[in-house]
Design a protein that fits this description.
mainly alpha, about 70% helix
Length: about 110
């Protein structure tokens, strides 16, 4: 049991947690910034979640093609670019019926 506990709290596990928290911060910041121009306060949480997914995807893609190592500044730049790209694409691909850009579709009740 102690071996499992030590492995769960090793340096590599701590690095993964710090990396995840960094991607959360980058994605949330990008999502919030993209929702600000038109004051979409209700859509900022959806764009933030999409931004987090984009940050992780961008960083992993950069690592996969050999352009960034885990934990480097290049990985953070790739995460920011991925978050911005995915959140912006999500905002553009989900317009409302009134012509305003929103992050998610509204239900028709």
């Amino acid at each position: 049991m102690w071996a499992t506990f030590d492995e769960a709290f090793s340096a590599s596990a701590l690095f993964a947690c710090v990396q995840f928290i960094t991607f959360l911060a980058i994605g949330a910041m990008v999502g919030w910034l993209l929702s600000r121009p038109r004051r979409w306060a209700s859509w900022s949480s959806a764009l933030s979640m999409i931004g987090v997914c984009g940050a992780w995807t961008g960083a992993e893609f950069a690592h996969l093609i050999g352009q960034a190592e885990h934990g480097s500044a290049d990985e953070l730049a790739a995460a920011a670019i991925g978050a911005l790209g995915l959140a912006y694409a999500w905002r553009r691909l989900h317009p409302s019926e009134t012509g305003e850009d929103i992050a998610i579709h509204q239900s028709h009740a």
